[in-house]
Amino acid sequence: MLTREYDIVIIGSGAGGGTVAQELAPMVAQGVRILVLEQGARLEEHEYTGRELDMSAALYEDGGGFLTADGTMTLAFGRAYGGSTVVYTGTTLIAPDRVIREWCVPGLDHADIERRSRKFMAQNDVHFLPRVLLNDNNKLFVTGCARLGARAEQFPLNLRGCKGSSLCNLGCPNAAKMGTHRVQLPNAERQGVEVVTRAEALRVEERLVVARVHAARPGEKGGDSTWPPGDYHISARMVIACGGSIGTSALLLRSDATKSIRRLGERFTCHPAHILVAEHEREITNDVGHPKSYYLDRAEHEGYVLETCMYFPFITAKNLTGFGADHSTLMRAFPRLQMILVLACDKAVPGNRITVDATGKAVVHYRFTPAVIRSLVSATRMSARIFFAAGARCVHAPSADPPLIERERAYRLDDLIVEEHFLPGRISISAAHLMGGCAMGPEGSGVTDSRGRVYGVPWLRVADSSLFPDSVEVNPYQTVMALADRVAEGIRDDWTK
Amino acid sequence: MSESVLAPVQATFRAVAETVVPEAASLRPEAWRELEAVVESALASRPETMRRQFVLFLRLIEYLPLVRHFRRFSHLSADRRTTVLHGLESSRHLLMRRGFWGVRTLVFMGYYTRDDVQGALGYRAHPNGWSARRTTGEMRAAAAEPFGEELRDA
Fold first, then answer.
1. Are residues A258 and A400 in the same domain?
2. In this structure, are A412 and A488 located in the same domain?
3. DSSP bridge partners of A424
4. Residue B38: inside a domain, yes or no?
5. Which of A212, A379, A490, B17 would bridge with A304, disulfide CB 3.0–4.6 Å?
6. Is B42 part of any domain?
7. ipTM value for the complex
């Protein structure tokens, strides 16, 4: 066992870990030794090829195919220098005031979240895309919404020099997306924070992280770690867990020092999502341009959000219900396809939680509540209306049987798209907004306080989406950064005491 | 893992693949090997139990039709194969549905990540994005294009 000694060890380099690393980096000048451990690799620029299979394998846990315990939902989360910020689309929204109030976390208020969010929005060049870069897929969504009297809103995006490759979810090949791998981590490293990749945190012990550094496999993307392969005991005065909802929860659940923490792994939410597809008569620009430029927010009253999206052939094929000739026919219409992503704003419920198996691997237990099914079906109906209003000739709705609905039957959407056809295991449901597991809250009901201090474990902090006590109802990375900023501030304050 | 997972159930796997993606029937031997290599690679990164379940499920698909159609799956006509798989896809039992979903997903992964297939679909995403698609003149024209009524109203 190799040994290393630091003052602060940060586990994870995504929206949480990258932010904490940057915000603590000035302490390096005062002699504080800070280390970031990242399980994934650091890719060279030329390795971002946009190829679906290669990039999924290089940038996602389980190649993007991590399944829930009953196999009915795929969870996508990043594993790379920059974590999931490498593979998101850069959509940047501040958590709604209503949501933060409903979280009821003592010491946390919306004004604080908003102030910190705006700081990072400025740092990450968040802005609206100019119209010249909008593709037909997005314009049709706006058109369809407008014809129904609904207001589609434009996403603010954290891009710098977007070329419109449409490949955001495979890691931007043009270095345009301002994830932590482009902004916060380089800032931290310039100030002396050390980042070690291919370093898997096996467990935490009191003021210690046990980690395993892996060698790069032949042909694998990303360079070798800066540390030789092997197992390490890394001592630290403080450990900050930033491995994301699943990573952090699993790490603490398999560690003797923390596994008995009450409520650990609970309050898991994920915005379960469908990809819906419609076919137009003519070709549209869909696989060029930023894929996710607009959304329709129905979270507060109807429990869902619609977002524009565009996925790659395999992901698209997987998300269409069915198989055989009909499925192939729709796939061959690829240049004429419009897509919408529907997300349900799920609520934390007992039973939806993260555990670990005998080997310490994360297991996510999730059942679709009636409210979630209702939201997804309702969102599917609304999407179908938008598609038809935008001129689509047919719509593929997973919660319809058969799923393909021709324009001539559009007047029957309420009868055709119904909850009884929502059959888990038959239809593809995925989620990429993974939240909860180390929820903030009052002592007794929360795992941490509002600054990520784990109750009863003074050397341990949490700074990632596992802190969310319930779903945030918007794309979560901006709120993760705001919370991580709070955690870092708390550490700086405590350090001097 | 060095042993092939697919080898013992290759005939069934190919019969399922050709039912799930009818175009797969015209793949050349080399293309089949590539498709199966993708599937093998995906399976290799999964736990041993999952690989065993995959093989077991393909064996189930192979022998299940004996009960109703008196033939193994790989010996059925295309229509009957479709009927069998539809039965699994819509089964009352979650295990059957998710088993078929998993096999179907692997078939799609092997088939739709192929460059020639993506090209044939008309999928043209390129790292250079708009500049790979539009000339400078077209970009200028697009910039000058007024928003439609709907965009203005929105």
1. no
2. no
3. A427
4. yes
5. A379
6. yes
7. 0.94
A312: containing domain:
131-156+273-345+369-423
Q: Is the pLDDT of residue A43 over 70?
A: yes
Q: For the domain that residue A45 is a member of, what is the CATH number? A: 3.50.50.60
Across the interface, which of B45, B112, B131 has its CB nearest the CB of A314?
B112
Q: What is the pLDDT along chain B (154 residues), one digit of tens a residue?
A: 458 999 999 999 999 999 999 999 999 999 999 999 999 999 998 999 999 999 999 999 999 999 999 999 999 999 999 999 999 999 999 999 999 999 999 999 999 999 999 999 999 999 999 999 877 777 777 766 665 544 544 4
Task: Inspect the interface and report whether the beta carbons of A163 and B129 lie closer than 8 Å.
Answer: yes
Determine, for residues A285 and B143 on separate chains, whether the beta-carbon distance falls below 8 Å. no
| Alpha-carbon gap, residue B30 to A415, rounded angstroms | 47
Nearest CA in chain A to B19: A324
- Note the pLDDT of residue B151: 52
Chain A residues inside the 8 Å CB shell of B129: 162-166, 174, 288-289
Q: Are A199 and A37 in contact (CB under 8 A)?
A: yes
Query: What is the amino acid identity at position A431?
Result: A
Whether the CB of A69 is below 8 Å from some CB of chain B: the reply is: no
Say if residues A89 and A291 touch (Cβ distance below 8 Å): yes
What total of structural domains would you count in chain A? 2
Which residues of chain B neighbour A50 with C-beta distances below 8 Å? 125-127
Which of A146, A283, A288 is opposite residue B125, by nearest beta carbon? A288
Range of the domain at B41: 7-121
3-state secondary structure of A328: helix
Q: Which residue, among A263, A252, A276, has the nearest Cα to A140 in the 3D structure?
A: A276
Which of A132, A162, A290, A327 to mutate to test binding with chain B, by most B CBs within 10 Å of its CB? A132
Put simply, whether A218 touches B (Cβ < 8 Å) is no
Amino acid at A365: H
Pairwise CB contact (< 8 Å): B97 & A425 = yes
Q: What is the pLDDT of residues B13-31, one digit of tens each?
A: 999 999 999 999 999 999 9
Residues of A in contact with B127 (CB under 8 A): 48-50, 163, 165, 167, 173-174
Query: Facing residues of A36 across strands?
Result: A10, A195
Q: Any bridge partners for residue A306, and if so which?
A: A296, A342
Q: Give the tens place of pLDDT for each residue, A409-453.
A: 999 999 999 999 999 999 999 999 999 999 999 999 999 999 999
Q: What is the distance between the alpha carbons of residues A306 and A73, in angstroms, rounded to a whole number?
A: 19
In a domain, B130, yes or no: no
Inside any domain, residue B154? no
> If you average pLDDT over residues A222-244, what whole number do you get?
97
Do A487 and A405 fall within a single domain?
no
**What is the least distance, in Å, from the CA of B47 to any CA of chain A?**
11
- Strand (E) or helix (H) holding B107: helix B94-112
Per-residue pLDDT of B110-123, as tens digits, reads 999 999 999 999 99
